[in-house]
Structures are given as structure tokens and as C-alpha cells.
Amino acid sequence: MDIRAQVSMVFHLDKCIGCHTCSIACKNIWTDRKGAEYMWWNNVETKPGTGYPTKWEDQEVYKGGWERKNGTIELRGAGKSKGLLNIFHNPHMPTIDDYYEPFTFKYLDLIESPEKGVQPTARPVSLITGKPIDIKMGPNWDDDLSGTPDFARKDPNFKNMTTAEAEAMFQLEKMALYYLPRICNHCLNPACAASCPSGAIYKRGEDGIVLINQDVCRAWRMCVTACPYKKSYYNWNNGKSEKCILCYPRIEAGLAPACMHSCVGRIRYLGVILYDAEKILEMASAPEHDLVEAQLNILCDPEDPEVIASAKANGIADSTIKAAQDSPTYKFVKLWNLALPLHPEYRTLPMLFYVPPLLPVMASVTQGKNEDQKKKLHEVSKVWDDKWLYDTSTEDIWGTIDEARFPLKYLASLFTSGDEDLVKGPLKKLMAVRMYRRYKTVGDLSKVRAVEALNETGLTEEDADSIYYLTTLAKFDDRFVIPASHREQALDMLDFPGDEKGGAGFGGSKPAVRGL
Predict the structure, then answer these.
(1) Is 357 exposed, middle or buried (0-12, 13-18, 19+ CB in 10 A)?
(2) Is 1.10.3650.10 the CATH classification of the domain at 357-477?
(3) Rg of the Cα trace of the chain?
(4) Between vectors from CA 333 to CA 327 and to CA 337, what angle results, nearest 5°?
């Protein structure tokens, strides 16, 4: 057992309102400079949609992440031999057109324009060339455009769905969308770090944050190809790769990352999770249908005496262990099994998890039933109708999940490598908690029915109250449990063996990004 500490995140998708406040906070602090105009370390996508960069989920094009061969894993599109073959031209790397050409407007034209017979306009100009351009793309160009042929219908997650199943999502009366915020996952098995020929990318020993040492980076850009989430970027101005640093200077000061601190919907949670580093290769090499369970098996119980002893033997501070015991992310991911990783089939073991959205039930819930069944289920689509709440069984309640506006097959493609039963589990728990809260606050549902729904999902009344509190009422310190930094340990790391500058070693404390 080799216990390490990892700062992890949970995003609750039912709470995201798509305001992009997180993206602007990150942009203003980290990427508001030359060469980084097109970078959005934090971005919010609309699903269904192609995302940013375009179709980043299509690894047949971008060759990101790991693939399983002969019982073990290897990089899909990077590595020594593959990297050497593509050293002068990498066909699997996104171009500026796949992101968007950053632009601004010549606002002075509105003020300095001479008198004319028409209203002056501010022309868009490229932030790269400075020349006028026609805007064709942006970081959230498909924002709220669910159903459009240019974006939503080209979502790579439709590849396992039939044309009829996909088109059903775009019928006007059934149309739905939700938002998917994304930052670097700070993975346990980061493909970006494994692909870097220079060894510039490393994972901090004290908290697992993945960083790029700017002194060592030689702009091979293999990390851009290798990252399946496309969260490593090339700065065309200074010739270095850059990525989300999880605002580690803020975390070291006990503050939440900027994107999380500014989140209007309070969808974001940050905490410490303890994991067994000895299991990484084994679990990342698991068969595709076992990947989610394998990733959960890496995560360890912070109350287990054996885990605590191994953590202390590795130099993990008592304050970090206490933070792991109070961690909201551990509760969502391991204790309640409510949060799932994004595209576990990439085998990077991401440490950013999502609570899937419990989307509306379609009015066509009775489709495919005979007349007697239709009569019985007539009220099912009116989920909170009094008669339905008293008269239907929990079997009918769970049936509404299968009829949600987003098919389980679509959500499973995002979060469980296609396993619909795995993604149904968190949705059933979310619905059971809603029923329980309905009983407690409105009182028009019997306690027997509410508790029955909880029991069928493996939750207790105490669990339901805790989930409700952490989801809706939690204060700042409940959502962000940040372990105290130990400066004496950081100073010791300056003398890390084989690392004279203290930056490229495992856990090096020298700032790893520009100018910090």
C-alpha cells in the first residue's frame, strides 16, 4: 500500500446555470496576455455539442489518452516512437481553427470615425495577426444552441446511438440541454506527463496537482496531443505549453481556486482524497466496462487505520489526513457514489468528478405501453402530482429515469464508458433524495414511500439529509476543505535530489508556471 494525497473536485451539473463566471475569473487571472488569448483553462460547454476545441472527445482524430493492449496500456497518439514519427508534423494536434482565432473589436472606430451618412461599426480584428477577420467560431459559440445542425448534431457522444435515438432529442417538445464545465482533471495517470519528451510535466507530491515547468518545457507539444481532454495549450508567443494549475498559490494560502470561488451556482466542491498509488497501473489497465469501479477501488477510506499509517509513512501531514476525512469530494464520489468521472475510457484516472444531471421526464413516458398500462401510468409524467405520489410504485418512479429527455445511453457515453446501469445509479439516488425532501418539506408524500425509495438506492435518512445539506445549504468551508500548507516541507523540497533548481522534481516547490 502506497498512500498519496490528491486534491480532487466535484461539479454538480444539476446546479450549473451556464453563466461563465468561472471562465472569466480564470481568464482574468491566468490567460489574459499575449499568446494565451485563445486559452480557456476553464470553459463551459453546452451538451449536446461539439465543445472546445471542436470535437475534443473524438480520439479517432486527436489520439489522446491511453489505450489497452495485451492487458496493459500505452499512449494512443504520443510516446517515444509515435512522437519521433510526428516530430515535424503532428496530424493529431488541434489547430487554431479547432479552438478559434481570438479576436477583439476596433472600438476606437466608433469614436474616431469621421462624419458619414451611415453608423460606424467596430470591426473585428484578429488578436494574432491584427488584421480584420470574419468571426466563425468562439470558445462557447454553441452556448445554449441545443438542436442546431452545426454543433449539437455533431456531438461525438452520438456515435453509439442510432440516428432515430439521436434525432429524438431534437424534437421541439422534447429538446433539452445542460452545461458541462471543464478544467484540467489533474489525473492520477496523466497522459500529458507521460508523453512529454523533456520531462517538464510533473505531479506535485503534496497534493497531486499536475504542472508544467516552464524552464524545462521545449514546446514539443506532445502534451497537447496526449491530453484527451485537450487541457494543455501551446503559447505561440513564448513557445511554451501551459495548462490549468488549479490556482495552487491560492490553495497554498487556504483559498479556493478562482473558478470555484466565483461560481454563482455553487456547483463546485474541492477536497482531498487518499489513494493507493500501487494500484494505478493495474486499475488503468482494467477492461473498459470495469474502469469506473476500478477507479473507485484506488480511492481509500481516510478513517482506515492502515490507510492512515501508510499516509503518515509517506509524509502526509495530519492536517491533510483530517482534510481527507472531512472531504466533500470523498463523500460524493466514494461514500454516496453520486459523482462519476468524465470519459473514464481515456484511462487517465481523472480526479474531477461530475454529479450527472437529473433532467426532466418526457410527456411521452407511456409510449410503447398497452392501453391498460397507459391508463395506469397516465399520471407518471407529472412527476410530483399528488395522485401519482400516492398511487404508483417505486418501479414506476425508476421508469421515469429511462424516459428522461437525455437518454441514458448519451449520459453513459460521457460518464461510464457506455454502462447505462452505472449512470442510472446516481440518478435514482438523486430522485430518491428529492422524494424524501418532498416528504419532509411539503408533507404530501408518506414517509413510508419516501424511505422505501431511499432504501432501494442504498441510502439512509441520514445520508439523504447530508446530501441535501451539502448540495443546497453548505457553507464555503463545507464545499472547500483545503489542507493547510506546510512551508517547512516546501523549503526542504528545494534540495530535492537531482533537481538543482527545485522545479522539475516530484513535488518541487519552485513555481512551475510563468512568472510566479
Answers:
(1) buried
(2) yes
(3) 24
(4) 135
pLDDT tens digits for range 264-318: 999 999 999 999 999 999 999 999 999 999 999 999 999 999 999 999 999 899 9
Q: Are 126 and 101 spatial neighbours (Cβ–Cβ below 8 Å)?
A: yes
Three-class secondary structure of residue 37 per DSSP? coil
How many degrees, rounded to 5, is the angle at CA 78 between CA 75 and CA 81?
Answer: 100
Cis peptide before 344 (omega within 30 of 0): no
Phi, psi (5° rounding) for residue 355? -80, 115
* Chain center to CA of 198: 27
Per-residue pLDDT of 45-77, as tens digits, reads 999 999 999 999 999 999 999 999 888 899 998
C-alpha cell at 18: 451556464
CA distance 181 to 185: 11
Q: Which candidate, 331, 305, 271, 315, places its Cα nearest to that of 483?
A: 271
**Nearest by Cα to 46 from 153, 135, 168:** 153
Identity (one letter) of the amino acid at 493?
A: M
Which of 128, 51, 94, 346 has the alpha carbon at shortest distance from 221?
Answer: 94
Residue-wise DSSP of 269-296: EEEEEEEEGGGHHHHHTS-GGGHHHHHH
Q: For residue 367, give the nearest of 400, 338, 414, 343 by alpha carbon.
A: 400
Size of the chain in residues: 516
